[in-house]
Amino acid sequence: xxxxxxxxxxxxxxxxxxxxxxxxxxxxxxxxPAMSPVLAQEQGMGQNTPGVIRDAETEQxxxxxxxxxxxxxxxxxxxxKIILIxxxxxxxxxxxxxxxxxxxxxxxxxxxxxxxxxxxxxxTGHIAGGHLAGLHAEMAKAQIFAIAGMLVGAGGVVAxxxxxRPGAPVGADSAGQMGMLLGPQELARRSLLSYVRxxxxxxxxxxxxxxxxxxxxxxxxLVTLERFENESLFMxxxxxxxxxxxxxxxxRLSNLDAAAKASPTYNAPEQPGLxxxxxxxxxxxxGFMGTPxxxxxxxxxxxxxxxxxxARTVSAYRFGRIADTQTQVDALIAAQPNNPYFxxxxxxxxxxxxxxxxxxxxxxxxxxxxxxxxxxxVLLGHALVAADQADEAVKVLTQASQSDPExxxxxxxxxxxxxxxxxxxxxxxxAAQGFFLNGxxxxxxxxxxxxxxxxxxxxxxxLKADDILNYRPPKF
Length: 476
What we know:
The chain is mainly alpha-helical and 476 residues long. It has helices at residues 18-31, 40-43, 56-73, 104-109, 113-128, 131-163, 174-213, 219-232, 249-262, 274-289, 292-298, 306-318, 322-335, 340-352, 356-369, 374-386, 390-403, 408-421, 424-437, 441-452, 460-470, and strands at 3-5, 52-54, 81-85, 92-95, 99-103.
């Protein structure tokens, strides 16, 4: 199930004063149209940004790509999350120190697993190197430098203004006065950008090391950098390299090419089975997110591969051709009877066509084949609620919400399940948790207040409701 979830991540504010941090971030943003991955956390994810994508198949594939890399880097894989973003551009970034965000466009455009594995290795380099923590410290230093310089500049402006009073000797004009004020800010900005570029170079080198340690090639990383270089050729002549958050692609390629080709694993083949899985995930994402013309172009009827059939089946479901969907998905299941994601698609199509009870066998089969696929469990919980099987729905959705406490959708359906059972306090609490995780704090507090009044003081439900009532979103 590919689903877009509008979520406002809850991030801890930086230690630096928010107003001054915002000034420096504005200076950096003005320097380059593309934000540095390690800086993306500071911007947050507003209502106009692409939503989070939840899909068990894609999440599991990325987890399988990343697990050996995490181990080689000494990163705690259990505490590190990979989150999909519904953006068609080729990009990835790190936020909160333990979250790697990957645009679906990167997966859709990457022809081989190795390209995405190289991207994940680079982002893991940011995590292992503690680059976010280092960035915060560097920002604090830059703020002190900028403020001190501005104070000195302001003193110069005052003196100049006095000299420019009528009858006084000629002093600096208004442009010169602004230069006195903005000069320290510009130096602070360039210093911070230089630091960020050095982090990118460090992450590139770390990626090659992790790939070698896991017996994998760095070819995919070079392919990605070549893609960036080709995309930037038309504008590189007008770019000031000192005002970028990343080294220019041709510099990154030059710096990395020799190291990558010197690695004894440079010609290592792809791991068996990964290419087929990668092709299926790409096809699925194109089927869910591409236009009909794009789907037809990338997966024409003449293409009888399993991936092409998957894309066309998803497209049939997406555009409401339910009869075609069931026929085509049954053919997919016949080809791979142990593929949980084909059963998931079959169940999803039945559920969303109003056949909740008929969807349950397929969804239960999918869960049994992919017990770690939390989005499938949530989909099963949804179907159980729709089929008026509230007791089982509560059990399934409670397990899902405990496994992933940040999944607002699980709490939304759990609220419905408790409501069907007549358990109003638990229904209101689950609704509050769902609203809270989706950044809808006013509705969350309203439901939490109602729930708290019905729980015994100090009980687990009372404490959870109280936490929501006392939470205040950070201000950046």
